[in-house]
Specification:
Layout: E1 15-20, H1 42-47, H2 57-76, E2 80-82, E3 93-94, E4 99-100, H3 109-112, E5 113-116, E6 119-122, H4 135-147, E7 152-155, H5 175-180, E8 201-204, E9 207-211, H6 218-228, E10 234-238, E11 253-257, E12 260-263, H7 275-279, E13 283-286, E14 312-315, E15 318-322, H8 326-334, E16 338-342, E17 358-363, H9 379-390
Parallel strand pairs: 1-2, 6-7, 9-10, 12-13, 15-16
Antiparallel strand pairs: 1-17, 3-4, 5-6, 8-9, 11-12, 14-15
Bound molecules: delta-amino valeric acid (DAV).
Length: about 400
């Protein structure tokens, strides 16, 4: 019998195979129209620019120790763990339409790669330094594709990443201006090209929720709808207006088990979008305040303190959490989850925490409907009626 290797329909089913990122050869993210990295300490930022070039070896080694700790924990639960290939992130990128001085790292496969059932999809990405970030995963993808005859492989269309794709003045906007415009959902990328990072998607069986953000635009969500609906998925855009710098849904809205989502108290879902969850008996559990304030996060980390919520489920009952987030451990324990704490803070400056640093390939289970009361109109239905009309 032929092996089925690629099979993951949600964020919580029992985990069987996963890719864990690696910090080797990581570089600092460069300044570019889609990203303006800044030092965490505002006083230091007045004196020192954000560093350029490769990450220091001891910093990379510390991150690798924690990533290896995650690998060991997963293996002790019987999970098969795979790692990305080596890649030279110091190579500059030059295409006919843009140039960038270096690439980034292979710590966060979640941002680039996603498994939708038996399909592996490579995201378009939204930043120049990450244009080629699928490369460290290609050997694995070929292996899955060669061994699993049911596996479908797709790569979303690459955007130009030309200057015109970005709205650079976004970085100059004051917080007041962002706050006033929070319901426009307009960020540093324009709406003309198809743009999405994989980490803006969250999988709930038949239903996929995609956040509009600095890394995913409305055309990106439309592309995902047209791509996924013929396979039986229902794709929903979701918004968290109080997140003035949204990037990746997995520090904001994190499903842990059927009927349970961990929510971010500072980033409530847009009024009206909660209805689908409430109507279908989903419970929102509010995450407690993280251990660190934003100012206390590691100096070069570009993510918020809400990395505290970036947990990895290895079954509907078992969750891996960052070691220092005691209030979160207690909360999850109270709700009947087994918590597995591990140190992970040295990974933060490489783009994320436990969910970001992984990409699940196989979870035991099938595609289920967790929103049975949903009345969904597929995008294709509207498009078809228009084309019939034109003919
Ligand atoms: O809240 O800063 C970070 C996600 C990183 N992949 C946040 C989201």
């Amino acid at each position: 019998m032929q092996m089925r290797i690629v099979n993951a329909w949600n964020e919580w089913d029992e985990l069987e195979e996963i890719v864990v990122g690696i910090a080797d050869d990581a570089y600092f993210e460069p300044t570019e129209p889609g990203s303006c990295p800044a030092l965490r300490d505002k006083h230091a930022a007045k004196i020192f620019p954000f560093p350029k070039g490769p990450k220091k070896q001891e910093v990379t080694e510390k991150a690798n120790e924690e990533l290896n700790g995650l690998v060991a924990l997963l293996e002790s639960h019987g999970v098969t763990v795979r790692r990305p290939e080596k890649h030279n992130f110091g190579t500059p990128v030059k295409t006919p339409l843009f140039e960038v001085e270096n690439q980034y790292c292979a710590v966060c496969p979640r941002d680039v790669m996603i498994t939708f059932g038996n399909e592996i999809l490579e995201a378009t990405m939204s930043r120049r330094a990450r244009f080629f970030e699928y490369l460290p995963y290609r050997k694995l993808v070929y292996e899955y594709w060669n061994q699993d005859p049911y596996m479908i492989w797709n790569a979303a269309p690459k955007p130009t990443m030309h200057d015109l794709m970005y709205r650079e003045e976004f970085w100059e906007w004051s917080l007041e201006k962002r706050f006033e415009r929070m319901h426009d959902f307009e960020f540093c990328i324009t709406q003309d090209e198809v743009i999405f990072d994989a980490a803006d998607c969250s999988r709930f069986g038949h239903d996929i929720f995609v956040q509009e953000s600095m890394t995913t635009n409305r055309a990106g969500i439309r592309w995902l709808k047209r791509h996924l609906e013929p396979r039986g998925f229902r794709v929903h855009d979701v918004h968290f207006p109080l997140d003035l710098f949204p990037s990746h849904i997995d520090c904001t809205f994190v499903p842990l088990a059927p009927g349970v989502v961990l929510t971010n108290p500072e980033r409530p879902i847009k009024a009206g979008e909660e209805k689908l969850f409430i109507d279908n008996d989903w419970q929102f559990i509010e995450a407690p305040h993280p251990t660190s304030t934003d100012d206390e996060m590691p100096m070069f980390c570009q993510s918020s303190k809400w990395l505290a919520m970036n947990v990895l489920s290895i079954s509907p009952k078992k969750v891996i959490c960052e070691e220092q987030e005691h209030s979160l451990h207690e909360l999850l324990d109270k709700h009947g989850f087994d918590v597995y704490p591990i140190p992970f803070r040295n990974v933060f400056e490489f783009g994320g925490s436990l969910h970001c640093a992984t990409w699940d390939i196989r979870r035991r289970g099938t595609c289920k409907d967790y929103f049975p009361k949903l009345n969904y109109t597929p995008l294709a239905a509207t498009t078809n009626s228009v084309s019939r009309f034109i003919m």
